[in-house]
Amino acid sequence: MNVLVFKTNLSSPPLIEWMAPLFNLHPCISEWSVDTEDLDNVLRIVSSKPLEKDVIQLMQSKGFVCEVLPD
Fold first, then answer.
1. Greatest CA span in the chain, whole angstroms?
2. CATH number of the domain where residue 26 is located
3. Would the pLDDT of 71 be above 80?
4. 13-42, pLDDT tens digit by residue?
5. Fewest CB atoms less than 10 Å from the CB: which of 12, 34, 46, 53?
6. Number of structural domains, the chain?
């Protein structure tokens, strides 16, 4: 299991809902959440394999900011 943590600009429920199908349908993602109370709008993903590059590309292709947060 991999826990991935990203800084994003997913700052509101409508934006999160818009991205939800992409995360929900991804075969390697078992859980995900966005903390909009955090200044970094932290996206946390639990996956069966490392997906950092995939998640960043997916988010950027939809016009969002996404950066890996260091441990």
1. 29
2. 3.30.70.100
3. no
4. 999 999 999 999 999 999 999 999 999 999
5. 53
6. 1
Residue 27 domain boundaries: 2-68
Q: Which residues pair with 33 in a beta bridge?
A: 44
Q: Which amino acid is at 68?
A: V
C-alpha triplet 22, 28, 31: angle, nearest 5°: 70
For 62, phi then psi, to 5°, come to: -100, 5
CA 61, CA 67: separation in Å to the nearest integer? 13
